[in-house]
Specification:
Layout: E1 5-10, E2 13-20, E3 28-29, H1 34-38, E4 58-61, E5 66-69, E6 72-73, H2 74-80, H3 83-92, H4 98-109, H5 119-123, H6 131-141, H7 155-181, H8 194-203, H9 214-227, H10 234-244, H11 249-260, H12 268-279, H13 285-293, H14 314-330, H15 335-348, H16 351-355, H17 363-373, H18 380-401
Antiparallel strand pairs: 1-2, 2-3, 4-5, 5-6
Helix pairs in contact: 2-9, 2-14, 3-18, 6-7, 6-11, 7-8, 7-18, 9-14, 9-17, 9-18, 10-11, 10-18, 11-18, 12-15, 12-17, 14-17
This protein binds carboxymethyl coenzyme *A.
């Protein structure tokens, strides 16, 4: 708690509100007593000025382009760590010792299989179902299969549910892909790393062995790290809100997946690649830049702009380099990468984008990489969901353990009709 108070005068009455300090970043004004004191609510659609919770997981300084997980810069984690280590860090607060990491990897590896009956769920979907639709359904259905880890008041059950979700998500995601292409499901293999296992479950077929390429495994691992958590974004807030009512973890993560699907959030990676392909050649870029600037045109440059980053998204820096490495390694000469680089340069030098502080975000280059690896665009958001699962479960666990936690229940500014009498249909 800070020594400062914020003083607010409403209707002649003055009250002090405590100002709370974080370890770094803006202070917050504790307005929990505001309604009791004044009979008024605050109005903040989109929560641009509202801290919904206290959290020790992830810190973003949007003006400086900084992203820290438990204090560690995202660039360092992407370059030097592994996704499994980052998962441990997010869940437990500290980097693991060698033994702790080995134990954690063993635990996750032993949870990668899904209940065999879950495969029948897939067969209920049309083959052309969007894999995110399948993800929402199948992840929600996990609560029907793992009853022994749905008691949210038991820390051990919460831990097991968290491990299950992180471990099973690659299996579920790979199965969604296999179902869409009409190939048999591939079971996980315990001798492979988390990421290599996922690639194998996605791309191998029974007729032929699949040997994951270390450069691709490394790139994929980096992509997972870059998407692991991102503070109180829309899907994480959805998971927290769903969890605040006491809903079980599988249902909460399914809610997060549904929210992530939207094109303004996780769906932007799919939309960004579709946009780059639609632009097609460098000479068409000015036309699309003009459309993005036109107030009467709903078109936006997908993969550009961010609610919090008003400087280069630090994840995009790593992503751009990874895209270059992957394309080189695979010998892919995708013109879409040239369009992306040129579009970025033109936008970064355009007064509209400079003035509005619009920079490439994590999604701008990720689609180029994922497409080169062989994922269809519909799978991009699924990969985001896979990686973000650790962030969601870590935030959910933090929320459940927080003594200040209450059911999330925002209020509103009502602008509808005031009370009126019902009129029967023959009199209307
Ligand atoms: N292209 C053109 N103009 C834009 C863009 C864009 N991509 N993004 C924002 N603007 C303009 C917008 O028109 C508005 O202009 P004005 O002030 O004249 O009305 C101004 O910039 C502020 O935009 P906003 O919509 O009020 O900002 P926001 O914070 O509500 O939205 C955003 C953030 C990410 C939803 C938005 O920038 C956007 O739609 N970007 C494209 C979608 C995208 O790439 N999303 C991925 C985000 S990163 C991954 C993740 O975390 O999910």
């Amino acid at each position: 708690m800070s020594d400062n108070n914020a003083t607010l005068t409403v209707g002649g009455a003055t009250k002090d509100y405590a100002v709370m300090d974080g370890s770094v970043g803006p202070q917050v004004i504790d307005v929990r007593k505001l309604y009791a004191n004044t009979g008024m609510f605050t109005y903040d659609p989109g929560f641009t000025s509202t801290a919904s919770c206290e959290s020790g997981l992830t810190y973003i300084d949007g003006d400086e382009g900084v992203l820290l997980h438990r204090g560690y810069p995202i660039g360092q984690l992407a370059e030097e760590s592994s996704f499994m280590e980052v998962c441990y860090l997010l869940l437990n607060g500290e980097l693991p010792s060698k033994t702790e990491l080995d134990d954690f990897i063993t635990t996750i590896t032993r949870h990668t299989m899904v209940h065999e009956q879950l495969t029948t769920f897939y067969r209920g979907f049309r083959r052309d179902a969007h894999p995110m639709a399948i993800m929402c359904g199948v992840v929600g259905a996990l609560s029907a299969f793992y009853h022994d880890s749905t008691d949210i008041n038991d820390p051990l059950q919460r831990k097991i549910a968290s491990h299950r979700l992180i471990a099973k998500m690659p299996t579920i995601a790979a199965m969604a892909y296999k179902y869409s292409v009409g190939q048999p499901f591939v079971y996980p293999r315990n001798d492979l790393s988390y990421t290599a296992n996922f690639l194998r479950m996605t791309f191998s077929v029974p007729a032929e062995e699949y040997i994951p390429d270390p450069v691709i495994v490394d790139a994929m691992d980096k992509i997972f790290i870059l998407h692991a958590d991102h503070e109180q974004n829309a899907s994480t807030s959805t998971v927290r809100l769903a969890g605040s009512s006491g809903a079980n973890p599988f249902a909460c993560i399914a809610a997060g997946i549904a929210c992530l699907w939207g094109p303004a959030h996780g769906g932007a990676n799919e939309a960004a690649l579709n946009m780059l392909r639609e632009i097609g050649t460098v000479d068409k870029i000015p036309e699309y830049i003009a459309r993005a600037k036109n107030k009467d045109d709903p078109f936006r440059l997908m993969g550009f702009g961010h609610r919090v980053y008003k400087n280069y998204d630090p994840r995009a820096t790593v992503m751009q380099k990874t895209a270059k490495d992957v394309l080189e390694k695979l010998g892919v000469n995708d013109p879409v990468f040239d369009v992306a680089k040129e579009l970025e340069q033109i936008a970064l030098n355009d007064p509209y984008f400079i003035e509005k502080k619009l920079y490439p975000n994590v999604d701008f280059y990720s689609g180029v990489i994922l497409s080169a690896i062989g994922f269809p665009t519909e799978m991009f958001t699924v990969l985001f969901a896979l990686a973000r699962t650790v962030g969601w479960v870590a935030q959910w666990n933090e929320m459940i353990s927080d003594p200040a936690q209450k059911i999330g229940r925002p209020r509103q500014l009502y602008t509808g009709p005031t009370q009126r009498d019902y009129v029967s249909v023959d009199k209307r």
